[in-house]
What does this fold into?
Amino acid sequence: MTLHPRESRYGRRELLQRGAAGAFLLSSMGSLLAACGGSDGGSGADLTFATPENPVTWEVFEDNPMIASGLEPESGTLRIYNWNGYLWPKIKKDFAKEYGVKVEETFFSTTDEAVAKISSGAVDFDVFFPTTDRVGRLILGKSLQPLNGDYLPNLANVWASLRDPWYDKGSQYTVPYATWTTGIGYRTDKIAASPAKLANPYEIYWDEQAKGKLYLLDDSRDAPAHMLLKNGIADINTENPDDIALAKAELKSLYDQNVKTSTDDYTNLPEGKAWVHQMWSGSAISAQYYLPDGVGTDALGYWFPQDGRGVIGSDMLAIPSNAKNPVLAHHFLNYLLDAKHGYDNFVNYTGYQPPFTALNPDKLVADGVVPKNLRTAIVRESDFDVASQFTELTPTGATEWQNAWAEFKAGV
It folds into this structure.
């Protein structure tokens, strides 16, 4: 296995920052609702919200058709809009060489920034990486084009449940890219009691040993979700004002712990900046490559609920409706869905696991991809049966959550 490159990167996503982020969310939400036909400009009553309990098959609009079959790939430059550090550079080079084209990648730092640009039509990227809690609005706003499955035979390599996901039945507008869970990373050589040893593992955030060395993910949904789960609220998509107030109060109670927020979880923990860090599973796997010389991988721990009732998700690939090279983009999606290419992208760079049927989770430990003590960071298809996934929120709910997050961030 090739070692993970030790270079500066932001991780799979850096979400909403303090200050003007709340105002940006409200303005972009209003614009997007208008694009999606929100006649009242804000209630979202006429919007369809996909959930695991209410899966949605999206309409293919006459004025936003899929491309025809049998077309040759364009010869132009493939333009990718992505999270920084979420695609192995060699993948881009190899694809460019095979197809005789150039590949350019532009990075975004927040979901709202990316969605606003894609939905505005002012940019013309060929490939985009949306998330489950935004994709519905992008589809209804006709900002993504329907996919032609004839160009995507490698979709057959994906878990059945993600070939036909609740957020996009039939993979009409998206294909899966990577899976992840949100758990708690910790330094076993710094913390005496691991989360698993506590009656309520989430209490580790308030442990005196973590004071000054505590980080939450800088993510307006992941961080509050752990506050909800700590209090036995399994609905991480709740819009109940009491639940939102409780999560905000729990977050603010961590001021006494000198809590910080970051998405550099994959470096903060191994480098010792954090002893306890809310963490994505892919970052836990990548963290082993950022340990100082002489520190073994057994210094790292990753807790995720043993019963699987935590936060889980999958990121995806899509093609914007105004892509200049849609055929080439389909070929690129299919390239990443190739079992070898997707696996190499995972083990050599991102640490985020593709949902491939040929990928044996248990073998990842045997092959040395994942240290035995981090096997809790491995994602299995069955985990999606019990874990909670983020869905889209109503405009009102999104506003209430963002206001709570902004208030917390103002004191960090």
Summary: The beta strands are 78-83, 103-108, 127-128, 175-187, 214-217, 260-262, 276-280, 300-303, 311-317. The chain is about 30% helix and 10% strand. The longest strand covers residues 175-187.
